[in-house]
Design a protein that fits this description.
By secondary structure, this protein is an alpha+beta fold. The protein is 38% helix and 9% strand. It folds into three domains: 1-68, Arc Repressor Mutant, subunit A (Orthogonal Bundle); 77-141, Arc Repressor Mutant, subunit A (Orthogonal Bundle); 163-244, no CATH class. The chain contains seven helices and five strands. Helix 4 packs parallel to helix 7. The protein binds a DNA duplex through helix 3 and helix 6.
DNA sequence: AAGACACGCAACCGCAAACAA
DNA sequence: ATTGTTTGCGGTTGCGTGTCT
């Protein structure tokens, strides 16, 4: 899986920019530098950390791997649904999609899409109508619905509830323990709304999150049955509305 | 057991936008 | 207004690993 940490021929040349995989020492230097001193410019980060890397490379490493708020676990089924929906509405704007998925990076989502979802769609397309339009691998134009093109994604003007979020005054939901049955009534909120929910007999305040609510820790998210489906249908109608005008 | 192939992922590349001098 | 630098993004590549034959 991981490449060899050092590319022969690149590492050997003193004072030349290093390329290839990052070593644990480089990671530690970069992490320490950013944690304690922050980022002025990325090129200065590379210098101050004593790394023979480009600022660009440092930024990429931080964004995609070292950032403390990154999720380490594999992409879940629900996250996959979100990726599919967002890709349908936004096109291949991976950074915009990533911005709506706390703890996930654009690179991660892009890789996930390219490796799994597109493949699955192509397979489904082939199975559906043999040889039909399967020569076109472009995910957004893969024959399903009227997905926006990469060039002009339909803007989303409305705000829709996406998740229920358990906000329990700092009580971490912990991995795997938030699977209790949650009864909650769906709301079409235009702003963050709240609802009383009964979770295992206890009354907890749940918040619906919208696209603008990006600063909640991802592990506070819990399923709200039906929310995804409702949101997706809203999304489709919003897209078709805005493409008409 | 070994070679071929497919897959997943980290990282690079090129380009464009944003910003500073 | 122009030029140079930095940042951010999407596409692509290349390598290690897993699976199949």
């Amino acid at each position: 899986m991981a490449r060899k940490p050092i590319h022969a021929g690149v590492e050997g040349e003193a004072n030349k920019e290093r390329k290839g995989l990052w070593s644990p020492e480089e990671d530690e230097r970069l992490f320490t530098q950013i944690t304690y001193h922050g980022v002025s410019t990325w090129s200065s980060v590379a210098q101050l950390a004593g790394l023979r890397r480009s600022g660009k490379s440092c930024r990429l490493r931080w964004m995609n791997y070292l950032r403390p708020d990154l999720k380490k676990e594999p992409i879940s089924k629900r996250e996959e649904e979100i990726i599919i929906s967002l890709q349908r509405s936004l096109g291949n704007r991976w950074s915009a999609i990533a911005a709506r998925m706390p703890g996930r990076t654009d690179n991660e989502i892009k890789n996930y899409w390219n490796s799994r979802i597109r493949k699955r769609r192509n397979a489904a397309g082939k199975a559906g109508h043999d040889g039909g339009d399967s020569t076109e691998p472009a995910p957004a134009a893969a024959g399903d619905e009227e997905g926006p093109t990469d060039a002009a994604p339909a803007p989303i003007r409305s705000r829709f509830p996406v998740f229920g979020c358990q906000l329990l005054d700092g009580v971490g939901s912990g991995s795997g323990e938030s699977t209790q049955s949650t009864t909650i009534t769906q709301q079409n909120a235009t702003d963050e709304s709240e609802a009383e929910a009964s979770v295992d007999g206890e009354s907890n305040m749940l918040h619906f999150l919208t696209f603008d609510d990006l600063d909640y820790s991802a592990d506070l998210l819990v399923d709200v049955p039906g929310a995804m489906e409702a949101w997706e249908s809203e999304l489709c109608s919003a897209s078709s509305m805005s493409s008409l005008s």
